[in-house]
Amino acid sequence: MKTTPLYEQHLALGAKMVPFAGFEMPIQYTSITAEHLAVRQGAGVFDVSHMGEFWIRGPQALEFLQHVTLNDVAKLKVGRAQYSMLPNAQGGLVDDIYVYRTGEAEYLMVVNAANIEKDWAHLHGLTAGFEVGLENASESFALLAVQGPRAAQILQSLSEVDLLSRKKNDTFMAKLAGRWARLARTGYTGEDGYEVFLAPDEVGGVWKALLDAGVVPCGLGARDTLRLEAGFPLYGHELTDETSPLCTPLAWVVKAYKTFYGKAAMMGRPCLQKLVGLRLEGGIPREGYGVHKEGARVGQVTSGTHSPVLKVGIGMAYVNAEWAEPGTGLEVEIRGKNIPAVVVETPFVH
Amino acid sequence: MDYPETLKYSQSHEWARQDGDKVVVGITDYAQEQLGDVVFVELPSLGKTVSAGEAIAVVESVKTASDIYAPVSGEIVETNAALADKPELLNQSPFGEGWMFKIRPSQTGELDGLMSAAAYRQWVESQ
């Protein structure tokens, strides 16, 4: 099992550690609900150093990325970042990713930890004909996500560079608590905040400075409940090798006016099922639970939890397209009982 | 971690205590700690006949749903209605206000067959 550079710090804080994507990661330090609410109301910090980072460099880095990703990389100015996805040949997804333009012909791609090897092999297989170099820098970066309404303000107290007036998806280098870091005003919680890329041997000092400034350490448990309330999909659950993003609320990522790998396959697939948000008063939906309408199974839950903010069950599910409209009444089968559920717009919170 | 001496314990982390002709049942301090924040409790219906070892209730934390097993056989004669609105009582007071249900035992001896506090502590430490 791999560990992140903050492993000893997690143990010292009494974190409950679990295996995740080949890493031993903190799932919670005190309580998922308390950590969740710290991010919604103040500021929390997540160690997400398990995530993968690839450098993409060269005179045709842009052309290569246009080919292998779904969003429009041509729109990215230096110092800007965008959410995107890697399509496969069948119109499904290899991964969902973030792309940062760090220089004229230099991009950083952040990928899911569980997909590092798969993405690396996939991207390598598509470089032919492009003047581009790839570097797997996953071991060279530690990554912190500092999130919450107070996150930027607290980070500002650790830096002399202006952090407060930066826009969402801005990315730049700055010194934080005396260490050089790449900052990006991005996150996976639905709150304002920054993600901070650091050298593995420097992350400990920044982590300590954040905790000393009152930022609450948060585990993967709260990360999951926060992303669910925010309506963000998680690869391996809502997004897979088989699912098309066109059948999800993330269809906006797919820029049909450009060409990309597997485009014909993706554009030619009908959406028999669509990804929706579900809200339940009488139970908690969990991955794999059946969704029913008038006695027939019409879908399945991909993720679910108890929303710490709304205090009801929330989840995401693929349901037959005819039942995907917000307001539609459905049922989720929980331990043999059909519990009423309503299709709702995401995000659930905000 | 608390292991009250006056209670009996199951390997599946329920506690049980004689209360007149009934047996009160809940989950242990260790169980609530492992589960994390309890957000939903599904209790057995009154009058239900249960067998020792049968899954008869469910406790859901933010992260997962866990079955709760009857430590003794008998009839469900009371359930803790307070848990519907305050499932967090299982975290805050697992041996007190967070009790789950009462069983009128149909067999003698099952309660005595459960573990003592010392034996249960050993069981937890071996997990």
From TrEMBL, chain A:
InterPro entries reported in the protein's UniProt record: GcvT, GcvT/YgfZ/DmdA, GcvT/YgfZ_C, GcvT_bac, GcvT_C, GCVT_N, TrmE/GcvT-like
EC id: 2.1.2.10
Alphabetic keyword roster: Aminotransferase, Methyltransferase, Transferase
Keyword Lipoprotein recorded: no
One Gene Ontology term from the biological process aspect of the record: methylation
Function (record text): The glycine cleavage system catalyzes the degradation of glycine.
UniProt-listed PANTHER family: AMINOMETHYLTRANSFERASE, AMINOMETHYLTRANSFERASE, MITOCHONDRIAL
Full protein name: Aminomethyltransferase
Originating organism: Meiothermus granaticius NBRC 107808
From TrEMBL, chain B:
PROSITE patterns hit by this protein: BIOTINYL_LIPOYL, LIPOYL
Cofactor(s) needed for function: (R)-lipoate
Entry keyword annotation includes Repeat: no
Protein origin, superkingdom: Bacteria
Gene3D superfamilies for this protein: 2.40.50.100
Keyword annotations: Lipoyl
InterPro entries (alphabetical): 2-oxoA_DH_lipoyl-BS, Biotin_lipoyl, GCV_H, GCV_H/Fam206, GCV_H_sub, Single_hybrid_motif
Residues with N6-lipoyllysine modification: K63
GO cellular component, one term: glycine cleavage complex
Cofactor binding comment, as recorded: Binds 1 lipoyl cofactor covalently.
Domain spans labelled Lipoyl-binding: 22-104
GO biological process: glycine decarboxylation via glycine cleavage system; protein lipoylation
Keyword Kinase: no
SUPFAM superfamilies (UniProt xref): Single hybrid motif
Signal peptide (UniProt feature, chain positions): none
Subunit structure: The glycine cleavage system is composed of four proteins: P, T, L and H.
Family of this protein: Belongs to the GcvH family.
Protein task: The glycine cleavage system catalyzes the degradation of glycine. The H protein shuttles the methylamine group of glycine from the P protein to the T protein.
Name the record gives this protein: Glycine cleavage system H protein
Name of the encoding gene: gcvH
